[in-house]
Amino acid sequence: MASLKGKVVLLTGALGSLGRVQSEALSGAAASVVLWDRPDHADGPDFAAKIEARAGAPCAYVGCDLNDLRASEAKAREVADARGGIDILINNAAVIINKPFEDFSLEDYEDQIRVNSSAAFALARAVAPGMKRKGYGKIVNFCSLTLNGRWDGYVPYVASKGAMLGLTKSLARELGPHGVRVNAVSPGAVVSEAEARVFGDRLQQYNDWILENQCLKERLQPSAIADLVLFLASSASDMITGQNIAIDGGW
Q: Any catalytic annotation for residue 157?
């Protein structure tokens, strides 16, 4: 099992379906994890306390809205300064809405670009100087299977993930000489609360469509994503950077 003992991890979107499982995996690898999510998550501190009690590694909750880029960058700098730097940044947070292109407003588009990709830039700006001083660091961004172009109704989301891919490639080039590795994960259709919320009474139809298109005829679980993130966060992946790794059951 990978060990992250002594490493400080900042994980955004930590209270979503994927984030909670990643939180447990990272803490289980002995990392000190800072859970970042919206300030209206009342169970944030309790979840952090449970993770810490279970894993025995420090775990804290930060409530900050990624829609506010300047506040987020300032908060990330504050968190980094208080912990002697962030060793691993995982930009997991995302907003996803499904509806026809014409039904999206400009505000809808801007909101998804801001949370899904611009916030990753802001947080990277905040933590990269500390990583460069140490000569080592990991940034894991979340892209998406939807970049393959086979999904309708996600124009702002797909655009934001395209921006995230470009950010990953360019940051890997600029930060590589300083020992900082930057990679992206592109999950497929993961069983999650977001999936149930987006598709509602169409969930069974959606599930059947996924299994029809995947090479592997079983649904992707959040634990599989957490395993890949843990690998990219660990020293086992030190010679991997600038990559977008698909984990989607085969499409």
A: yes
